[in-house]
Amino acid sequence: MKKCKYEFIYTPNKRCKENALEDNDFCIFHADFPKNEKKLEIEIDKKLSSADYDFEGCILNEIDLSDREINQKVLLNFFDATINGDFIFNGKSKGNKGKVEGLNFSLATVKGNIIISDLIIQHTLNFQNTKIDGAANFSNLEVNENAYFNSWGTHKFEVQKIAKFKNLEIRRNSSFKGSLFKESLDLSGSKFFGNFKFKKVKIYETLKFENVCIRGKANFSKSIFNGKVVFRGSRFYKITTFYGTKFVKNANFQSIGFKGMTNFKNTIFKEEINFNRASSSPSNKVIFDGCNLENIRFKDSDFSRCEFKFSKLPDRIIEDREYKEKKQNLIKELKIINNSILFSGYIKFQEYTKFPVFSQIIKDAEMIAKTYKKIENWLKDQDELDKANQFYFNEMEMNREIYAYKNKHKWIRYSIWWIISGYGVKRSRLLILIGLIMIIIPLFVNWQTYIGFIVGGIIAIMLSSFLSMLTKR
C-alpha cells in the first residue's frame, strides 16, 4: 500500500508512516473530512496508547486527554493540526497536577473551545499563530521554560471568545506579541519570571491583569485595549514600557507597584486613569511623556519620582471637580447658600457643618490638598515652576476650603491672602490693589498722609516679596 504523502513542516525530515486511504493521498489522520469518524477515534486511541503524541498536520475531532496516562518525557505535538471540536487536557483529573515534556500547538486551528489547565510543562509551551474559534482556558499552568502565545508573519494567535490565563507561572520569557482577543482576557494572579512581551496586542473587551507579578522587563507598546483595563495590585520589577499604547475605556492602575523605570510615552488615555495608592521605587522614575492626563487620579499614590514630559495636566484634578459638584449638590439639598469670602456668609455656612455628612466633605478636601501638593513637588523636581505654581494655588484653595469648616481665623487669613496675592502666586493682584489705593486715597486725605500710604505700600511690596522667598514662590 502507498504511504501518506503529508509533508511535515515542524520536522521536515520526517515521513508519515501511516498508509494512505483508498482514493486519497493521505492517511486517516491527515486526510480532510469526510472520513470514517469511528475508525478515526480508534486510530487516535491506538496512537496515544503506544505513547505516540505526534499529531502534526492531523485533522481530528474533539480530543480529551484528561484521563490519559501521558509519558512525561515526550512532546505533545499538534503543530499545524486542525481540531474540529474541543481540545481538553485537565491535568488535575487524577489529583495532583499532571506533567508533560512540552506542548506545541503552533499554526494549529481549534474550532471549538480549548482547556489546558493544572499542568506542569517541563520545557516550552508553544501556541504561536494558533487560531481558537471558541473560548480558551490556560489556567493553573506551570511552565519551566518559555511560553509563546504570539503572532508572526501573516498569521495570528487569535481567540474568538473569552480567554482565561489565570494563575500561570512562566519561569522564563513570555510573549503575546501581536495576539488578538475578540472578547475579554484574564491574566489575574499570574507570575512571569522572565521578560514579558505584550506588544501590538488587541483586546476588544475587558483586560483583567490583577495581582500579576512580572520579574523581567514588560512591554505593552502599541497595544490597543478597547474595553476596561484593570492592572490593580500588580507588580513590575524591571523596565516597563507603554509606548503608544491605547486605552479606549477606563484604565485602573490602583495599588500597582513599579520597581523599575516606567515609561508611558505617547500613551493614549481616552477616559479615566486611576493611579490611586500606586507606588514606585525611590531610585526609578515613572514618566508620562506626551500623554493627556486630564482625567488622572493620584490619590494616596507614592511615586518617589514622577515626570511629566509634554503631557497635558488638568487645571483641576478630577477629584477636585467631583468635590465641587458633590458640595454644590449637598448645599442645594440643605437649601443653603455656598460660603463666600464674606464673614457673614461663613457664619451662616458654619451652622450646617454640624451635619455628619460634612465630615466626609472635609476628608475629601484634605485628600485633594495632599494630591495637589504631591503633583506640585513632582513638577518642582523638573523645574516646571509655572505648572507647579498652579497646583500650589489649587492646594491653598483646598486648604481654605478645609479651614472654612474647621478654623474660622485661618479661613479669614487665607481669604485675605487669596485676595491680596493669590497665595503669593499671583502677586500682580497686590500691585493692582496698591495702585487703586494710591488713586483713591488722595480724594480723602492730605498730601502728608498720602506720602505715608506710598511708603506703606512700598513696605507691603517688600514684605510680600520676602514672604514669597520664604515659600520659594
Mean pLDDT across all amino acids: 86
Distance from first to last alpha carbon: 93 Å
Question: How are the strands of the largest sheet arranged?
Answer: 2-5-9-13-17-21-25-29-33-37-40
- Name given to the CATH architecture of the largest domain: 3 Solenoid
How many β-strand stretches?
41
Counting DSSP H or I runs of 4 or more residues, the number of helices is: 8
For the report, how would you describe the main beta sheet? Answer: 11 strands, parallel
Whole-number radius of gyration?
Answer: 33 Å
- Structural class per helix/strand content? alpha/beta
What is the CATH topology descriptor of the largest domain? Answer: Pectate Lyase C-like
Portion in beta strands: 15-25%
Number of domains: 3
CATH class categorisation of the largest domain: Mainly Beta
Low-confidence regions: 337-348, 469-473
How helical, in percent, are the residues? 25-40%
What general form does the structure show? Answer: elongated
